[in-house]
Amino acid sequence: MTERYDAVVIGAGVIGSGIALELARGGRSVCLVDRSGAVGSGSTSASSAIVRFHYSTRDGVAAAWESARRWLDWEAYLGIRDPAGMACFVRTGALVLDSPGLPTAQTLALFDALGVPYERLDSAQLAARFPALDTGSYGPPVPVTDERFFDGAHGTLTGYLTPDAGYLDDPALAAQNLAHAAVAQGAVLRLRSGVVAVQRTAGRVAGVTLTDGTALDAPVVVNAAGPWSSRLNAMAGVGSDFTMSLRPLRQEVHSVPAPSGFGLGSGAFLTDPDLGVYLRPHAGGTLIVGGMEPACDPLTWLDDPDDVDGHVTAEVWEAQTLRAARRLPGLPVPPRPRGVVGVYDVTDDWIPVYDRTELPGYYVAIGTSGNQFKNAPLVGELMARLVDAVESGHDHDADPVQVIGRWSGLAVDLGHYSRLRAAHADSSHTVMG
Q1: Residue ranges making up the domain that contains 136
Q2: pTM of the full structure
């Protein structure tokens, strides 16, 4: 059986669903395919779903600030209400503790230039505003098994607060909302539909073949397959000109009870490079705790994302929760691990690739895991604008497409996300981007 579309988007996570929506809004017939049985059930479902603005590059900050406006008025952006429910943005603010590991001065200069509100806090102000915090400086991070982990503080910390940051209460539902809106625009959603081949004709992409033998003919194919993106690129025979490599990375995030004075309404999303963790308040009196890839921690790279061990480990649980308890002395550490395991799709500099490829008609939105959930509504528009330009004959490699945010008025340069770029020197080279 053969079906014909103007575009096929592979991967029904939050990124792929956002791309399908914007391509459909642009008048294309779109098929959104995913091998799983539910929208947003892959890396998206394991996301901490944080909306923050502290990136180390101009375009990273601009994209996050523009995207935030869409989350704030989610139903208006979608143009429809999903009968399955609507994901909700929870505004907590984001508190970033200063550390040599983060380019604070550079980020704040970007905030000043782009109009992102923030407040500088000295040690006394930190202690007064967030009394549950230990404001001592203990970094750089060391393993919790190292006796130095329990050394006393060698100073006090300062930080800054961006009041407009927060998180989405249900990341998988956010992806579902985007897919529902795409279907309302005429897109077709095919779940339990793995891709087994990428077809070519006359030197360009011609569509894909699914596991059930169905051929989806299309002159445009977008790879938004997350940790499986490299496998899909290999099927398409693309990547020889990429200067960015991509690898799947196993990650864990954990859930712990929130201590008194640092839950919803009293705490903030906390970035703590001094100890190597981040925390965010969550419903039900809990905190989500994740790692920031400190240099002392081994990273679990995967050859095959399907081989991931889906159970949280005692070692990572202990490292993340003990670091969190060091910063929040009142945090009760439960005796048993509780959390989720996900697989990230990571580039060399932790900045994604939103680009065309050497195969005409084949596009990629990859390397997004860990720090791009917040940008999903904008990524859809970036990729739709890119496809429109390149399919109309624009030489994006020589003259990168620029997109002006409809709310912020800020330009986002898609050359920043080029497959041909050198690793961004300004990047933190961690999940913080």
Answers
A1: 90-166+258-342
A2: 0.96
